[in-house]
User: Fold this.
Amino acid sequence: MSRAPRVKKKRRLWITAFAPDILGGMDKPLAKVLCTTPSDLINRVITVKGTEFTRDFEDRGMNLYFRIIKVTPAGAQTTLIGHEYSREIISSKVRRRMSRVELIIRVYTKDGHRVKVSILAMTAHRCNYAHKKEIRKIFEETILEKAKNYGYEEFIYNLAIRKAWHGEMIKKANKIYPIREFLIYKSRAETVIVPPDEIDKAIEGEEEVEKRAETYVVRR
Assistant:
């Protein structure tokens, strides 16, 4: 009785993914990613600790999210699509005898992408509904205005890494009621994705990519 022919296993590859240009580009590797073909990598999301790019101790509890949008012989190119703080960091902001002011909003950036932003503030003491409403309005107006002036990647970079508008928002809110804690705890670019019919175009020199890639070896 003849044996069934063996099915040849596909070669598995390690390809290095690099940060987007705004965070160092090809000088800043993020991670080695495993795949069977380069096209498998397109739209894959990589998670990196926030402290890789900031010096803020609090950012030990923050994840940054990068989506792979192109693969070349030099490696995989990514774009920054969001951030999120851990539940522990968020919980540490919530205290007794304070009022919680929260805003979850979707905005459109200068380049037409939709970004979801989640903001948490805690007032120094308990405040009334009118105060909360005014503070939320300040946060909403500020985020809407900033989004109009930036592309999605720079917008998220300013929100999560530079924290460029934190001081401005706190200062405005303090005129309504003193703010004790403030955190933009989550952002996500919801419309940044390579369409299925454009995945092949996002691979540059597939044969050369596979040639340069490191082969995955199973250690026994």
Notes: Residues 129-148 form the longest helix (20 residues).
